[in-house]
Structures are given as structure tokens and as C-alpha cells.
Amino acid sequence: MNVKNPPSTHKIQDLETLRVLSDPLRAQIIELCAARPHTAREMAGRLGLAPTRLYYHINLLEKHGLLVVDETRTVGNLIEKTYRAVAVNLDVDSSLFNFETAQGKESLYGLVTSALDSTRDDLLRSLQARSLALEQGAAPTPRPVVLKRVTARLSDARTAEMLARLEALLAEFDENDAADDQTYNLTLAYYPVFYYPEDATEPPAAG
User: Fold this and answer.
1) pTM of this prediction?
2) Where do the domains of the chain lie?
């Protein structure tokens, strides 16, 4: 693989790698390194953490092929590595999700939990980091934050129409502009809602 020109998509095909990615901190590390290469020190600075908090997670991501070394250089008496995500986007093999098996349930639970936990941690860190920047004299430029949960009843035809419009909007959102533009994250969960029958026995545990 040419590290300088990584593929646009990398498919996760085993449960162990999916478990590694299911940690919200590791998911944020991958997001940072998908945007541009980072050293461990740079990642720690961006996330507001000590570098020692990241070494274990970085090594685990590298071991499972989710992070790759983009550059190695000597800084003083130390070897410093710059890491890049293996691909811009990560996809998960659908065969890993199967409610008929304990592993399939674990895979789905881990993926959903990681996405929601990463969103929570990322949003809270962003609000805190922006507040600190304003306290230190950054320009008070208002920017939107939207956090909303909506429930609607839709026909199958309307659902297909909504999905088509969402996919078009996501494709437009994914078109990166100038590097100095403000970065925005978008988490989308669009799914049919089902409930257990009123006379059902206790439902199985989620994870």
C-alpha cells in the first residue's frame, strides 16, 4: 500500500479489529489521522490528553492495521512516528452482524456504542475547547451546534425518498473544501423503530 496515497475505504472483516475500533477514544484517533498525519504528541494536544494516555491505543490500532506509519524521524534521542489512518473511510463487513450469534450481537452493539460514545465525547470536548479558546482571546465567531432527536411516521415510498435525499446531502457534506475551513462532524442514525409485544417475556440483553 502506498502510505502517501491511502485508499478511500478500508473494510473491517474480523471481529477483533471491530472490537479495537469500538473504543470511542480510538475512533477519535482514527478521525484525526484520516484528516492528516499526526504524531502521538500532536494527537494528545488536539484531544486535550497526555501523550501517555494514547500510546497503548495507538499501538493497538497499528497492530490491527487501522493506523500506519506515515513518517519516522529522529527528534533528539527519540524516534518520533507520524501516523496516518489506513483509509479515509472505514467500512464494516455486514457478515459480522448476525443476531443469531453472540459474536454478531457483540459486533452490532460495539459499533452502535462506539458511534454514539464518540459523538458524545467529541461534542463535549469541542464545546470545552472552544470555551477555553474564547477565554484566551479567540475571536467570538458564532457557529451552529445542532443536537436533535426526531420521530416520524413515514410510508415506504416516503422513506425511500428521504434516504435518497439524505445520501445526496451526505455526499455533499463529505466534499472537503479549503484546509482552513471550520471542521464539522455529523452523526446520523436513521432506522425503523420496533417494540416488543406487550405480552413478551423479558427481552434479551443488548450486549
Assistant:
1) 0.72
2) 9-143
Alpha-carbon distance values, 193 to 15, 18, 154, 186 (Å): 26, 25, 11, 21
CATH architecture of the domain with residue range 9-143: Orthogonal Bundle (1.10)
- By the 8 A CB rule, do 12 and 93 touch? yes
Closest CA to 147 of 167, 124, 131, 163: 124
- Nearest Cα to 83, choosing from 65, 72, 69? 69
Average pLDDT, the chain: 86
Other CB atoms within a 10 A radius of the CB of residue 40 amount to 20
Give the model's pLDDT for residue 77.
82
Locate cell 432506522: which residue?
191
Could you report the per-residue pLDDT of 108-157, keeping only the tens digit for each?
888 888 889 889 988 999 999 899 888 999 888 888 999 999 999 999 99
Pairing state between β 38-39 and 78-85 = antiparallel
